[in-house]
Amino acid sequence: MTLTKADIVDKIQEDLQLPKKECVNIVENLLEIMKQTMSSGEDVLVSGFGKFCVKEKKQRRGRNPSTGDDMMLDPRRVVTFRCSGKLRGKLNS
Q1: pTM for the full model?
Q2: Measuring CA to CA, how many Å separate 47 from each of 29, 64, 82, 86?
Q3: Contact partners, residue 44, CB within 8 Å, separation at least 6
């Protein structure tokens, strides 16, 4: 089962006994802060959980899988996730 944003809101509402609208605002604000930070090229570290790293990909040669034609892929940014040692230990215990 996949954990959705709505599931997170429901869990926060259940645990903190706050109005649902306020819980939605909390989750939306958190995600917006993370998006803005990563958009500026900075990494996001959540202690005990992991680190969202922004990586720069250079221009490279690729291939169109449907036609087989060679093409150049534009430089871009990607986000990777590295889990913390605590989370890794919890997953493997």
Answers
A1: 0.80
A2: 19, 40, 12, 9
A3: 34, 37, 38, 51, 52
Contact status, residue 75 vs residue 61, Cβ threshold 8 Å:
no
Query: Are the C-beta atoms of residues 23 and 9 closer than 8 Å to each other?
Result: yes
Q: What share of the chain is helix, strand, coil (3-state, %, to 5)?
A: 45, 30, 30
Region label for 3, one of left (φ > 0), alpha (ψ between -120 and 50) or beta (otherwise): beta
Residue 9: other Cβ atoms inside 10 A: 20
Can you read off the two tokens belonging to residue 73? 């892929």
Residue type, position 51, single letter: K
Cα 18 from Cα 60, distance rounded (Å): 49
Q: What is the mean pLDDT of each run of 10 residues along the chain (93 residues)?
A: 94 94 96 96 95 96 92 95 94 91
Which residue shows structure tokens 């890794």? 88
